[in-house]
């Protein structure tokens, strides 16, 4: 007994073949999609279509396709980005600030001392303001 003979026995034969074709097509599509996803996950290389995050100092933070081990924390990433940006301090104060901190509007431009990196500000005796941590 073949499929057309089974279909003749089933009520509504005209619907049987298209429904069977739909389910076969759906199963093949799902299997192909699943195999494709598995192959991408198993490749595990940089630049394989995933999202790669690189800090300003050039170190690789994460690759969403291949990275399994935890990377640095958000705070560590923020600190690394802040190290690459210019900072300022007040001539009369002992703290330095990033431009994104709220203190930038409270200090007059003529009283600001600029440093190219946070490290230079620390070497000059300034420390990071608590509002910028």
Could you characterize what this model shows?
This protein has two domains: 3-43; 53-132, DNA Methylphosphotriester Repair Domain. The protein is an alpha+beta fold and 133 residues long. The longest helix has 31 residues, at 13-43. Strand 1 (52-54) and strand 2 form a beta hairpin. The model has no long low-confidence stretch (mean pLDDT 74). It has helices spanning 3-9, 13-43, 74-83, 118-123, and strands at 52-54, 60-63, 87-90, 95-98, 112-115, 127-128. The protein has a four-stranded mixed β-sheet. It has a two-stranded antiparallel ribbon with strand order 1-2.
- Taken from the alpha-carbon principal axes, the silhouette is rod-shaped
Biggest β-sheet strands, sense, barrel: 4 strands, mixed
- Roughly how many Å is the radius of gyration? 30 Å
The count of strands amounts to 6
List the uncertain runs: none
Span between N and C termini?
A: 76 Å
Sheet with the most strands: spatial strand order: 5-3-4-6
CATH architecture of the largest domain: 3-Layer(aba) Sandwich
Mean pLDDT: 74
Percent helix range? 40-55%
> Helix segment count?
4
* Structural class based on helices, strands and sheet pairing: alpha+beta
CATH overall fold name of the largest domain: DNA Methylphosphotriester Repair Domain
Domain module tally: 2
């Amino acid at each position: 007994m073949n499929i057309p003979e089974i279909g003749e026995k089933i009520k509504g034969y005209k619907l049987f073949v298209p429904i069977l074709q739909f389910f076969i097509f759906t199963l093949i599509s799902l299997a192909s999609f699943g195999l494709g996803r598995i192959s991408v996950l198993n490749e595990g290389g940089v630049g394989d279509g995933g999202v790669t995050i690189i800090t300003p100092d050039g170190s690789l933070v994460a690759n969403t396709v291949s990275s399994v081990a935890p990377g640095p924390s958000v705070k560590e990433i923020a600190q690394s980005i802040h190290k690459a940006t210019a900072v300022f301090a007040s001539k009369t104060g002992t703290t330095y600030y990033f431009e994104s901190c709220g203190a930038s509007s409270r200090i007059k431009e003529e009283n600001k001392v600029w440093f190219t990196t946070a490290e230079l500000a620390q070497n000059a005796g300034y420390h990071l303001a608590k509002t910028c941590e």
